[in-house]
Write a structure and sequence with these properties.
This protein is an alpha/beta fold and 309 residues long. It folds into two domains: 3-48, Arc Repressor Mutant, subunit A (Orthogonal Bundle), CATH 1.10.10.10; 61-308, Rossmann fold. Helices cover 48% and strands 14% of the residues. It is built from 14 helices and nine strands. Strands 1, 2, 3, 4, 5, 6, 7, 8 and 9 form a nine-stranded mixed β-sheet that branches. Helix 13 links the parallel strand 8 (271-276) and strand 9. Helix 4 packs across helix 14 (301-308), helix 5 crosses helix 6 (117-128) and helix 13 (282-290) crosses helix 14.
Length: 309
């Protein structure tokens, strides 16, 4: 290592301690066995030599910079990043508001809606903040109804409530998300009910899809649909009832009997918005964006920072 390289390495060490690790100048001086004024001069020199670059952002500017970086790194066109609330529920309400604002920016008309915790939070936000002048005219579910009573997974009811608050027409899917078998799925997908919703899916200009984490303990239905495939492929996240890994590969199984929008139709939707909840992980967001499916995201600014770090 040359003398100049050693000097830059030492300046970088001091700068890292001070700017990234919040050490005081006196603490760095004690660690290196030098005076505090020398540390101050080293920090100034680090800025002069470009070892340290300081950016001052106006309110809202940081989110724009993060979105620019995400656009350059992944295939998204835009999105909304929000600051954390005082707790997860408050953060999810901010994310819900961001998703509705994005629909307005896009001028969305024919909307498809997924399911999950954040979608349920979005319904709650809209009930408190109805948008009767929304551009959305038609709404349909992207996945069938769950057998569990949890509101977040009652696709038709969520569509009805969202349509009510946006002044739009709802279209329903009267089929289960997870029928008993592949044979039952094939039978149900040959019905007029399915053909009608398939027609709605092909008309969509915008889809709102949750980006969730892959559970540490997969449910029984996932094990039946995929066997050991999810573990073999190192699955890290979920969108609708599809799973993907960190490389962005959506896992496919010949035994998948879930009733949801086919992936090829979903991928052709002009505006595919991935919505993260307060607890969506960096791995899940990274895998989702690497899939190339999403054109827009709604996420926490801190999650975007962690992804880009």
């Amino acid at each position: 290592m040359t003398q100049n390289q050693e000097k830059l390495r030492r300046l970088a060490h001091v700068a890292r301690r001070y700017y990234l690790e919040d050490w005081k100048q006196s603490e760095i001086a004690r660690e290196l066995g030098v005076s505090r004024p020398l540390i101050s001069r080293m920090l100034s020199e680090a800025r002069e030599l470009g070892v340290v670059k300081i950016t001052v952002c106006q309110p809202g500017e940081e989110s724009s910079l993060l979105l620019d970086q995400l656009r350059q790194t992944y295939s998204i066109r835009s999105g909304v990043l929000v600051e954390d609330g005082q707790d997860d529920e408050a953060t999810n309400q901010r994310l819900s508001q961001g998703a509705v604002e994005l629909l307005h920016q896009l001028g969305s008309r024919c909307l498809g809606v997924g399911w999950g915790h954040l979608i349920g939070q979005l319904v709650t936000w809209l009930e408190k903040n109805p948008q009767p002048n929304s551009s959305v005219t038609d709404i349909c579910p992207l996945v069938g109804n769950a057998s569990i009573p949890a509101r977040n997974y009652q696709s038709n009811e969520n569509v009805r409530l969202i349509a009510q608050q946006l002044g739009a027409s709802p279209h329903f899917l009267y089929l289960p998300a997870l029928p008993e078998s592949l044979e039952e799925k094939q039978l149900l997908c040959s019905t007029e009910i399915y053909r009608q919703i398939l027609h709605q899916w092909t008309k969509m200009d915008t889809a709102l899809v949750n980006i969730g984490n892959y559970p540490s303990s997969p449910d029984f239905a996932s094990l039946v649909r995929y066997g050991s495939l999810l573990q073999q492929e190192h699955t890290c996240g979920r969108l609708l009832v599809y799973y993907f890994n960190e490389a962005g590969k959506v896992i496919q199984s010949d035994q998948d009997f879930a009733i949801q929008i086919p992936l090829d139709i979903l991928s052709r939707c002009p505006n595919l918005i991935g919505v993260c909840s307060a607890n969506t992980s960096v791995r899940a967001l990274r895998g989702a964006l690497r899939s190339g499916l999403f054109s827009h995201i709604v996420a926490r600014a801190e999650l975007a920072k962690a992804l880009l770090a």
